[in-house]
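wait is this the right file?? whatever heres the structure
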């Protein structure tokens, strides 16, 4: 099996609906048991996505916002905020049909190399129940904080 062609393209305002779809797909399993109607779930997810977008633009306005393309098709989003001290992966999310295919690894390895070159740690926040937690551990991330919902994980630069 050959690895898929994975590329990034800078996001634009035209990608907002796609990013909302990626966000909703990432919350689908969590919301499955909630006794909301489909319309209520859609409204809830739209409100949550809007709040997340406002938070990201306020706190990470100068981050890189990219659409993940797999074989030329939009497959997810990647938001990375860089400071001299660290590189923060604000969000890495793939639509369900693209998960488990090595795409996350292919996106993270260049970021880790960038951290090594800049002598900067790479950080990410991840929910305790997120299956990607195993990937982050495999790539050398270790917990440095826990707020009860999210682990803050860090991978120090390699010398």
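ok assuming it is, sequence goes like this
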């Amino acid at each position: 099996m050959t690895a898929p062609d994975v590329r990034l393209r800078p996001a634009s305002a035209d990608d907002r609906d796609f990013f909302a779809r990626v966000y909703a797909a990432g919350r689908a399993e969590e919301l499955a048991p909630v006794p909301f109607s489909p319309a209520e779930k859609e409204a809830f997810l739209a409100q949550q996505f809007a709040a997340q977008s406002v938070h990201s633009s306020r706190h990470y306005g100068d981050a890189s916002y990219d659409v993940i393309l797999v074989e030329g098709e939009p497959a997810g989003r990647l938001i990375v905020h860089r400071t001299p001290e660290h590189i923060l992966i604000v969000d890495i999310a793939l639509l369900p049909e693209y998960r488990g295919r090595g795409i996350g690894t292919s996106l993270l390895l260049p970021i880790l190399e960038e951290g090594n070159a800049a002598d900067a740690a790479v950080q990410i926040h991840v929910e305790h129940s997120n299956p990607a937690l195993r990937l982050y551990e495999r790539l050398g991330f270790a917990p440095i904080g826990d707020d009860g919902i999210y682990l803050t994980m860090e991978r120090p630069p390699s010398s």
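Residues 6-155 form a domain with the Aminopeptidase fold (CATH 3.40.630.30). so i think its the right one actually
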